Structures are given as C-alpha cells and as structure tokens.
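Journal club side-thread
Mid-discussion, someone asked how the predicted structure for our own chain would compare to the paper's figures. Pasting it here so we can look after the session.
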Amino acid sequence: MKRKRSFVLDEKDERAVELFTDLGMPRNLAKTLMFISQVDECKSAEVEQGADLRQPEVSVAMQEMRRRGWAEKRDLKKKGKGRPVHIYTLTKKLPEILNTFEQEKMKQVETIRKDLTDLQGMIKEYK
C-alpha cells in the first residue's frame, strides 16, 4: 500500500482485489478488505479515499465483513452534536480470512461436482 496524504491501494493490492473478485467476492468487499487489512484501524472516510469507493459501498462492505466476523466497529463520539464517527478494525488476520474464504469456495466446488455427477447419471437415462 502506498502512502500519499493517506494510504491508497497499490498495484499489488489491486491484483489481490482482482483475484478475490475472480473467485466470486464482490469487488467493493475485496477492496475494503485489502485496505483495512493493512491499517490498525480506520474511519469509513479513509476507506472511501484509500480504496476509491463511495460511502454506501464501504458501508455495505463493512456490514458484510462484520456479519462474517472479520471486522468490528466502534463509535467515536464527536464534540458537540452530530453522528459519531465509525472506527473499523479487523478481528482476524488476512491469512485467516483467506482460509475461511477458501473453505467456502471448496464447498461450492464439491457441490458443483456432486450436481454434475448427478446430472450425468440422469442424462444417461435419456439415451
């Protein structure tokens, strides 16, 4: 990850995003994951800028990461009125997240294999 004013995804990060996306992960989730995995904690606005995403895209990605148990959110109250700022951190390291993702994909592969085998057996009856 390169640092300009703040951190931004670099070519290596973008390649990882591309691979995650090719494997079926939503692009915004992959970009958010790659950004947050390289910082201790971050605000939503930092993810938006660093991963080149819009606020709603980051919000949806962070909801999914929290649902999966990959990240957590804490609120930082501002002085005076206004909504609190959300601070995000990963709850698992990137290799552990990749392992979980890999297991999900391997289950999908096994389901596809089984379905293809079942379909081949059924089609033989039509000859």
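Post-session note: Helices lie at 11-22, 27-36, 44-51, 55-67, 94-124.
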